[in-house]
Amino acid sequence: MHKNNISPSILQTKQHFEILDGLRGIAALAVVTFHFMEWVYAPDKNFIGHGFLAVDFFFCLSGFVIGYAYDDRIAKMGVLEFFKSRIIRLHPLVIAGSVLGLLAFLFDPFGGHPELYSTGKIILAFFCSVLLIPLPVIADRSFNLFSFNAPSWSLFWEYVANIVYAFVLYKIGRSYLLLLTILSAVAICFVSYRSGNLLGGWSGPTFWDGSARISYSFLAGLLIYRSGWIIKNKLGFLGVALLLFLAFVMPASKLNWLTEPLVVLFYFPLLIALGAGAALKPALKKVCIFFGKISYPLYMTHYAALWMFGNYYTSHKPGTMQLTLIIISGLILLVGAAYLIMVIYDIPLRKYLSNKRNERLVKQTVK
After folding, report:
1. Would you list the domain boundaries of the chain?
2. pTM to 2 decimals?
């Protein structure tokens, strides 16, 4: 089909796997809780010490969902429209997270040293954060790839995976996909053995660890979808959610280099297959939909508050009781803030951009 004759209907979102949406929300909450707790406790004392593996779950889920949403229509819509769809879906919150991160950096009431950095450096770091160009130059932000919004590192790799999908993965057969998945599994094992864990990817020195993490999990998710490995079961949302939560509260040990790859290589793909095949009770449908909608806004906007929490914790050293109240309140407030950002900013902006694009496509079709 000629690119100027794309029907707007080809761009419409497909029906969601609601339990998988719900699991995405559980994973997002696990990441936020992990980020709070890592300021306070060493990895071996942190009850949710493996919360960072939620990112690998996101990657696997992304491969499955991208295959489901685009395998049968990317050829009709074309690579350019596919990229536009992904940017409209993902980028408004990349910008929002960067703006919030900049404000937290400049006006943190509990500490930080913005005065140590030139205006030019701050502006450059901000624009790189907005455009997803890695620039680990701010010591006060632990030399994160994206100084003003640390979680953007996974979005960077998500974009890379989408580009590779559009140019290569959607065209290749299942046997080649399986081969690439096996090679990526070897890479994951190598990274974990070398580093002792799978925590890398977010900083300059661990940059390439991120490529191994996205490669395996995204390919595995795509392979599950294309192979139809959906396991019908009666676990329901709560059953699969509990199994997912167990991965995040798995105790840390000297065998992290072995246990973490096992979770990523086998357990998460199994949970995607179970989540896609589980039956959802009507009573939990709204919960899953809400969790699914809030997961990405929460993931992309929470980290600004985490730096303020970290500076407060370091300077004030609150007691256990106070700390518990702060973290629980913080989680609730961050979910609320993410919901507001989604409703006031993200959904209206995406709707506006999608409508503009559809209008343009309609005009081109008429011509």
Report:
1. 3-366
2. 0.95
